[in-house]
Amino acid sequence: MSTVERLLDLLEGSSELRPLLRTLDQQQVIGRFLNIDLTSKFQSIYEVSSNSQQPRYTTIGYEGWVRSFDAQNSEGLSPYNLFARAAREHELIALDRLCRTLHAINFFSMSIPGFLFLNVHERLLKNIKYDHGRTFAAILIAMGLNPGQIVIEIPEAAAGHRTFLEFILENYHRNGFKVAINLPSAGLIHNLATLLEPDFYKIDARIACSDGSISPLVDYTKHQSIPLIFKQIDSEERLETLLLAGAQYVQGKLFLTQTAQVDKETIAYT
Predict the structure, then answer these.
(1) Rounded distance, CA 149 to CA 62, Å?
(2) Rounded to an integer, what distance in angstroms lies between the CA atom of residue 3 and that of residue 38?
(3) Residue 243 and residue 174: Cα distance in Å, rounded?
C-alpha cells in the first residue's frame, strides 16, 4: 500500500471530505468539487545564506497551490474562478478544507522535510465564527500528521483588522498550527508588531522594491526574530536588490531548481 493510500484509509470515516478524494497512479491524490478536478502544485521557499562568492539557498518549506480542471476549461481554472464557483457558505467551507487536505496528503506522502504553507480563503475567515483550524487539525491528526508542520497563511485583506487578526492567530496557534501574515504594505507591520506574534511575515517583493522599504523592513523583522519571506520574485534584478538589502527568505517564479519530486504537477482528468 502506498503512503497516499494509507493516508486516505486513515481518513475514512473521520471526515466528510473522504468521498471527494481519489488516487492517481497510487502516487498523488486528486480532489473533486462540483465536477471540477483539483490537483496540487508546490513552490519552494528558501532561506538565503551568503558567503564571499555565492549565496546559498536552503529550502525551508513549500507553498501549496491548487490547480483545477473541468470539461470546459482543460487549460485550468484560476484560483479566483474556482472559488467563485463556491457561492454558498457551506460550499466555500468544503472547498477550502478540501484544498488544504489535498495539499497535505500530497505533500506529506512525499516525505519532504520543511513546512507546508497553506492559504486560507478570506471568505472562510469571515464565515467561521470561532475556533479556526479545529476541524482541519482533527483531519490531520486522524491521518497521523502534525499540524505544527503546517503554516496557515492569512490573506492580505485580513491584515488590516487587528482585533480580528489577533483572534484568528490565537485560534490557529491553539489548534497547533503556525501562522504567516501576508502584508499588503510594509508600513502595516508597525501596527501589528506590538499586538501579534506570527511565526512568519510575507510580503510581495514587487511592493517592497517599489517603495524602498526593504532594509527597514528586514531590520525590523530581524529585531523581532520573525522570518520575513519576500514572495513573487520574478527577476534576477529584483532578487539582487533584495539580497543587497539583507533579505534572508525568498520565494517566486525565478527559482526553477525545485526538488523534481515536488515540482511535478499532477494532471487531473475529468
Answers:
(1) 11
(2) 19
(3) 35
25 contacts: CB under 8 Å, gap ≥ 6: none
Mark residue 131 as left, alpha or beta (left: phi above 0; alpha: psi -120 to 50; beta: remaining): left
User: What is the distance between the terminal CA atoms of the chain, rounded to a whole angstrom?
Assistant: 25
Angle between helices 89-108 and 134-142 (to 10 degrees): 40
In this predicted model, what pLDDT tens digit does every residue of 143-180 receive, in sequence order?
Answer: 999 999 999 999 998 887 888 888 899 999 999 999 99
Q: What is the pLDDT of residue 223?
A: 86
Cα-to-chain-centroid distance, residue 203: 13
Residues 6+ positions from 73 with CB-CB distance below 8 Å: none
Q: Strands 73-77 and 115-119: what pairing?
A: unpaired
Query: How far apart, in Å, are the Cα atoms of 152 and each of 28, 45, 87, 199?
Result: 22, 14, 23, 10
Segments of 120-175 assigned E as strands: 150-154
The Cα–Cα gap between 46 and 61 comes to 7
Note whether 133 and 167 are within 8 A (CB): no
In sequence order, what are the beta bridge partners of 115?
61
Q: Taking CA 154 as the corner, what is the angle to CA 112 and CA 76, rounded to the nearest 5 degrees?
A: 65
Distance, in Å, from the CA atom of 195 to the CA atom of 172, rounded to the nearest integer, reads 16
**103-119 b/e with 16+ CB inside 10 Å = b?**
bbbbbbbbeeebbbbbb
Global pTM value: 0.90
